[in-house]
Amino acid sequence: MSRATFIAGMLMVGQAAVGQPAIAQDSTRLRPRTLDTVVVTVTRGIGSSSLDAPFAMTILRPDSTRPGQRHTAFDESLSMVPGLTAVSRTNPSQDPRISIRGFGSRSTFGVRGVRILRDGMPLTLPDGQTPVDYLSLESVGSIEVIRGAASALYGNASGGVINLRTSAPPPARLSGEAHQWFGDYGLSRTTLKGGGVSGPAYYQADASLTSSSGFRVYSRQRSTSVFARAGAALGGTDYAIEFLGFDLPLAENPGSLTLAQFRSNPRSADELSVDKAARKVVRQTQIGLNADRQLSHDELSASAYFGNRSLYNPLTFAVVDVARKAWGGSGRFTHLSPIAAFTNRATAGFDIQSQNDSRLNFVNCRNVPPPPVATASCPVIGAEEGTLTLNQLELVSSAGGYMNDEIRFGEPFVMSAGLRADNVTFRVRDRLIGGGNPDDSGKRILHAVTPYVGVVAHLAPGQSVYANVSSAFETPTATELGNHPDGSAGINPDLKPQRSATYEIGLKGYSGRSGRLGYDVAVFTTRVHDELVPYEIPGSGGRRYFRNAGRTNRRGAELGVNASAGELRFNAALSYSDFRFDRYVTDSAVFDGRRIPGIPISRAQSSATWTHKSVFAVVEVEAAGATFVDDANTARAPGYEVMHIRGGMDHPLGAARVSLVAGAQNIFNRLYSPSLSVNAARGKFFEPAPRRAVYIGLSVGSGRRESDKRSSQ
């Protein structure tokens, strides 16, 4: 990746967003300006800014630092974060693959190892899985990311926390805008957005309709998403209600490819996926309530949410039908008090969640050889669903309580420590009993206590060095516990949660006039016991199973930089990942010393943005080294270097505003696969990224757009 490293080095003169006073772009006039200091909320009472927090942190303002985004994919918004990898799987039936420090990189469905929230409302389920297909990005103003130390704050995650915060509503009573995008591979996206403020109340909403034929064969999709948020400050308390809705009637699953297929025809689909009509249909709604109250020395916060999701998911090995209900709540109390010459901030809180899944599995009878004939498993010729093989109620509940304490020793030093205890209960009620079927009902309780301690030293105004020792745990999901290699049902009694300990030091800050140069450096080592590892069995039709590796060791270094000079802004993120199995023995092999697959040793991203009055241009470069694709390290995915460009203008037109954006992804038409399906039994490791793709967008809006997109608190 020599060329990409050179380009990244040329662009790398600042920070990948440290969350202190940073340079953003005025999204109306596109002129650089200094943003207000960001108050960090994801740290749950530890520090009021990223410089006070003893963690590696990044705060992104996606539309300000890198204007012209389409908001079609979560991975686009999460770019330029060191240590975080977010890549599209080029598969509309699968969520993007998101990982922090390698945790989550081998997820086969949803996002794993990372806690994800929207305005503090959890999107992550109590078993640790996060579907992000229903997440609307149109109204996101900032994104807070903690790399590592997730369990000490939020529980049941090894990699970190991502909190998306909604932008402030437009200051007018009524403001609206409409966007239309068109692009290669049949992309069409229409978005309506509006909001306003009236006295102590505000509201905002957006709705998007997206369709695409997809880069690959058999990857069409159609979706509708809705987001709404309203709130008011009444009697000294801030109240907010938030709604997310999603309808996905079509999302085809092209599967993964072998290396030969990837090189000869990256647009092709897995034959078995097409034969079995693999796809998913989703409908989901979620509503959340939140209340915050600030007192002279205290802060109170409480929230609750409820959601439901229906999933019809034909796969190569089965037809899965799930009806889910989920709910949860949290509360937090923070007290600030002086102790002698010190300032003490103490926080206590709790989180509770519940997940109720009614799961049915059927034999997939699509294109079953020989030519159509009724069988015991497929008694109805032409029907997709065959014999019912699984009928069970899966109940997952979690409860966690935590305490943090932060002591500020004058200006230079801040010390914090915390402790969290979690209890996650899995229950299965088997409803397919009789006729020779045993009762596979069961229960497992997984629990952990995860402490941390951290210290911050302010070396100079706008600069701090920190160190922390933190712990984490991560349970298997309900699906992972339910996938038995022997084909039985119920809860796997042998699969353990993974536990980890991290030692980290870092330096972060900003310098120059108005914080025009920022930096974020972190070095860490993480030891993981019983790491959860996916694998496939030949002849299983692509079904994924899970086992524990005895011990793994992650050593890494991360660098983020960001700088502004006149009309130019530069960003870069570099990650070095030496992640290995320390002790890992299966029935047939010993993998001690092998590199953990799915994670490149080095990865770089960089961007340059130029603005002049109402015109802008953005160049983005991303690169990664070769990556192993299996535990034995017998095969690698080739490294890659790609470049994306876009430009546009935003022009006032009377009381309205018109914007035009045009861009191209992968302008040099590279063949690459940033997403990998590790340990695939048939050698189908590769999920190719699109070749060159051109797109254009037009928007018309009323009033003036909020220039700094300040996030709601």
Write the layout of secondary structure elements.
Blueprint: H1 2-11, E1 23-25, E2 32-34, E3 56-60, H2 62-65, H3 74-77, E4 84-87, E5 97-100, E6 114-118, E7 121-122, E8 140-147, H4 150-153, E9 160-166, E10 175-183, E11 187-198, E12 201-212, E13 221-234, E14 237-251, H5 259-264, H6 271-275, E15 281-294, E16 298-314, E17 319-339, E18 342-364, E19 385-409, E20 413-430, E21 442-460, E22 463-474, H7 478-482, E23 498-511, E24 517-536, E25 544-565, E26 568-583, E27 602-612, E28 615-624, E29 627-628, E30 636-637, E31 640-653, E32 656-665, E33 675-676, E34 686-687, E35 693-702
Parallel strand pairs: 6-9
Antiparallel strand pairs: 1-2, 3-8, 4-5, 6-7, 8-9, 10-11, 10-35, 11-12, 12-13, 13-14, 14-15, 15-16, 16-17, 17-18, 18-19, 19-20, 20-21, 21-22, 22-23, 23-24, 24-25, 25-26, 26-27, 27-28, 28-31, 29-30, 31-32, 32-35, 33-34
